Amino acid sequence: MEFNANCSVVPDSTPTDAGVAGPGVLLSFIVTNCLSLLLSAIIILLGLRKSTSAPIARKLLLSFSDQQILTGIGIQSVGLAKMKTMVPYHFFIIWLLSLLSTATNLSTLLALVNDFKRDWVLRWLRQFLMLVNLFLGILSGIFILQSVMKNLEPRLPIACVWTVESRGHSSNAALAIAGTIAVIAGQVIIFIGSTWYLHYRQHPRWIKSVQVVGLLMLIASGIGATVRVVMESQAFGTPPESVKLVGLGEKDWSFGQLVPLLLLMLPVMSTVEIARGEVRMPPSRVDDDTRPLFDGELEFQPNPLMDSQGSLFRK
């Protein structure tokens, strides 16, 4: 493990990092963000019509949001921990994925704010995760901003932004700097507004307007981050030529790329279990292995396609 970034020698090429920019990792963030925004829109729309509380959609959205904010915090932590070896290209992709994570979390907050208000543990847990995500997002954004301002050599580690001299400004430096500053400032403003929104006890009439406008802004943010990820990554687009990636490792579909997508099925399975009702437990407590689990006749709900004897076809 390297503890000091080597900023004096520019490498000839950059190794690929499928753990950060592989197709499965990118798709897991993109798909989760799309599904969360869709579920949030459904819940908010049903709330405007006051037709149903949509309990299944609410549980599924909460599961996706919990998974996304934890993975967002995790991937940003990995990026900052590897900043002495990670190039700006991979660090920028991590930052874009964190924006998708933030959009997912905020859309969930817009749609399920009353659920969080009913339970102070869930409310403050959500507040803590939002604070950690904000801190990591701002810290990562500062590194990105500094690399753009100094026009850092693309093949040097991102940590070198604090030691190397500026190489002047690139052709799109002004636009990139303005966009990065706007995103960082927006994260702070949105965090303050979402904190007030989360802890405000009353239910004003204009709250529905806030939900609709906020959701439209988050959809735009999610689309923008998704487009940049697709265009910049080797997995789906074309990375900058100056990075000089070696090989096509970020295009390969390995087991490590399938796992993040398979984990997306967990919230769906939990939702099916919720829809079918709670799992039935024995009425009495079992003290040891010598006592039977059921003192009486075993209660069993048969498959409607089978008969009482367990045969596949009814007689």
From TrEMBL:
Protein name: Uncharacterized protein
Highest taxon, organism lineage: Eukaryota
Positions of transmembrane segments: 25-48, 60-80, 92-116, 128-149, 173-198, 210-231, 255-275
Keyword tags: Membrane, Transmembrane, Transmembrane helix
